[in-house]
Amino acid sequence: MRHAELVVLVVVSVLIGYGCKKQEAQVKSNKQYKIAFTSGRDGNREIYVMNADGSDQKNLTNDPASDEDAQWSPDGAKIAFASDRQGSYGICVMNGDGSGQKNLTNNTDYGARWSPDGKKIVFYSHRDGNHEIYVMNADGSGQRNLTNNPASDREARWSPDGKKIVFQSDRGGDSEIYVMNADGSEQRNLTNNPAVDFGAAWSPDGKKIVFQSDRDRNSEIYVMNADGSEQKNLTNNPAVDSDPHWSPDSTKVAFVSYRDGNSQICVMNADGSGQKNLTNSSALDTDPRWSPDGKKIAFLSVRPSLRIPFLSVRDDRFYICVMNADGSKKKQLTDTASDLLPVWSPVPMATQQP
Predict the structure, then answer these.
(1) Among 36, 44, 26, 95, CA closest to 69
(2) What are 97-114's pLDDT values in tens digits?
(3) Closest by CA position to 322, among listed 345, 297, 286
(4) How far apart are the C-alpha atoms of 220 and 79, rounded to whole Å?
(5) Cβ(195)–Cβ(207) below 8 Å
(6) How far apart are CA 209 and CA 180, in angstroms?
(7) CA–CA separation, 83 vs 98, rounded Å?
(8) Would the pTM of this model clear 0.90, i.e. be above it?
């Protein structure tokens, strides 16, 4: 009898263990990246979120004001965004599910970006009569002007280690790429060129900075070392090339190009080789955003079906699409007007079950 009881206990234990592992695997499989975006589908701009496959689209802000430019915190727990709900644009923050919305600034502030450790937020502000780069703690305290210059300073981006901030400034008479320490010290012009240089982005490994320049009399994508040395034209094409975005492993750059007659998403290696049109469409495709694992690219598109028949005008409503990083398996994720600025969550998150 005791032997039979022991056998039964062993079998039950195995079944329980198998069930737990199966449940754990199912929980893991129910996690995927999410995409936050700005939408005008409700008559005003709101922050929405959806699963990476386009399912479970949800309005997070639900406010009559204009809410836009969502930015996930590094751990995915919070979202910073810009809103004019206080009368002028300011930086707000909320939990990733839309709860706990809080206004952090109210001084014509925009362009919030989290520090890599999630403890601070950098942004640009017009509170001093010109655009300046400010920083604050993640709760809105300790707001401080970093640039303190009568010129226009904007578009601040943290270095991957959080020690430096790259930004755009016209203090030299034209738009240049500058860098400074995270505390605002040692501000330095990196590009030093009479042309217009802007749109700087650090490579995820922190070694390079990609940017846009018209120094060759048309818009091209350039790259330089993080100290400003070895500036190089990557695209070398007579068409307009713009909006560069690094792949998570720093080996590729996605960008927008008009080389085939209209706006298309292209990709190239970090040294400029292997340039390839990924979208190859008669539509207008723009704003490429890599998924954190580097396997997919979200982008904005005006598909051919949205063009107004028999008229010379085009419906300029943008829809969010996604494709594999090699350009295959394109899929439209949203089907309502004016969906903009897709931003991937930094980590996979639990999805709502049917």
Answers:
(1) 36
(2) 999 999 999 899 999 999
(3) 297
(4) 32
(5) no
(6) 14
(7) 14
(8) no
